[in-house]
Amino acid sequence: MDSDQIVDIIIGEIRETVPELADRPIGRGDSMADLGVDSIERSEIILATLEAVGLKVPMVQLHGPRNIGELADLIDAKKSG
Amino acid sequence: MPRKAADPIRFAGIGVASGLGHGRAAFREGLFAGRNVFSELKREGREAPEGEQPFLGVEMPEPPAVLPPRVDRTATLTGRVAASVLAEAWEDAGLDAIAPERIGLVVGGSNLATRERALALVEYWEKRAFVRPRHGHMFLDTDLCGLCTAAFPIRGFAMTVGGASASGAVAIVEARNAIRSGRVDACIALGAMQDLGGHDLQALRALGAMGSDRFSDVPEKACRPMDADHDGFLYGEAAAALVLCRESVGLSKTYGTLLGAASIADGTRGPEPNHEGQIRAARMALAEAGLAAADIDHVNGHATGTPSGDDTELETYRALGLHHTRINATKSILGHGLAAAGAIETAAVLVQMAEGRLHPTRNLETPIDPGFKWVGVAPVEQKIGHALKFSFGFGGVNAALVIGAPEASR
């Protein structure tokens, strides 16, 4: 699994959590905040992604990324590391 | 003549959901037809232990979606049904006419979503690291208050009250109190859907409260309140929202007036019924209404179909002198809605008042006590002036409501 596959998982979880975004193009450069995802929804999306990739890390270790691509890179790095 | 309150409190809107369907039209039609909706329970998480008879009862169709999809997907079934009955009652009463700060919400019921909670536990116990954060606010029954007040302009107050199987009636009592105290001008009493799982159902069966062994192969005959062949209550999914308001606030609809209401404790810890508590609650409600038992022309029983519950309630009817009045049991049609029962059965009283007709009591073929004027398996035409509604709950909760027809109480 690479960062692009994790991006696909994150985007799938975003569309599931916020049905209004079903038809909106979403890519690595988008941030969840800009997409209108609220903070609880963001936590839900990240937990669901972690479950999908099988990575157990405390949520605080995933603060910092400014967009979906950076979040996927960070999850990918933690998974590899 | 009933006592005239300075500013009586009346029922101005109804929203209902049950095995008969969603909305007042399906409710009315199904009640008077005495339509059978009992079958084996099929919803995920309601499986009986291996090798045992499936649980019998009533499940409702999928509720109409009234919440935005983004919110809807996060709500429990109990929450989605609550929003649906609230939407119907809101529109029926025309609550938009009242300032949000003058509207309150009392949700009756506790531990409402145990089926979904058990399913989530089974799925996530071994991988607790991935428990969804939203569970942190959803496991509280008061999530229903948040869900409903976020979707509707209710800004007076919102809370839950528990009274076991009397919760719906207790919610009506507390909504009445909130209006009477001046806290709000209108208040919704919402008997919430108690979503039982197989764990709960099995315990209720083991406790001897839930039937039915006798009619395990014929679900349509299994629920028999006040009949000699009764052997326990049958669960039925249900929910109801009732809008109560002060007469003077000017909502146009009037289903009936709440002339008297009482909810008292009898000092019982467990499921055992107590006729002294039942009698005291009824006498308090009647006294508040300024009525005698002789003035009551319809009794809607708690009447679950458990042998000790029915026997105790009959003792109460005898002590109060209710031999002259027509009695029926809404649970014979809907099953036992537990938290919702008191609210949806009060809705049944109001619908019967409006129609001048009493719904049948399914399966009441051989009344345990034929000395009462039962409404049997056929409906009865009768104008109702004053109705007495009973609701009892485990833990010694006894509630009684006296409701006057719009014309009788003016």
TrEMBL record, chain A:
Annotated Carrier domain residues: 1-79
Origin superkingdom: Bacteria
InterPro entries per the UniProt record, alphabetical: ACP-like_sf, PP-bd_ACP
Gene3D superfamilies: ACP-like (1.10.1200.10)
NCBIfam families associated with the record: PRK07117.1 (NF005502)
Name of the protein described by the UniProt record: Acyl carrier protein
From TrEMBL, chain B:
Origin: domain of life: Bacteria
Entry keyword set: Transferase
Family, per entry: Belongs to the thiolase-like superfamily. Beta-ketoacyl-ACP synthases family.
UniProt KW Transferase keyword: yes
Stated name of the protein: Ketosynthase family 3 (KS3) domain-containing protein
Domain Ketosynthase family 3 (KS3): 1-405
Record-linked InterPro entries: Beta-ketoacyl_synthase, Ketoacyl_synth_C, Ketoacyl_synth_N, PKS_Beta-ketoAc_synthase_dom, Thiolase-like
GO MF, one annotated term: 3-oxoacyl-[acyl-carrier-protein] synthase activity
Pathway the protein acts in: Lipid metabolism; fatty acid biosynthesis
One GO BP annotation of this record: fatty acid biosynthetic process
Start and end residues of each stretch annotated as Disordered: 43-62
Cellular-component GO terms for this entry: cytosol
Gene3D superfamilies for the chain: 3.40.47.10
Keyword Transferase set for record: yes
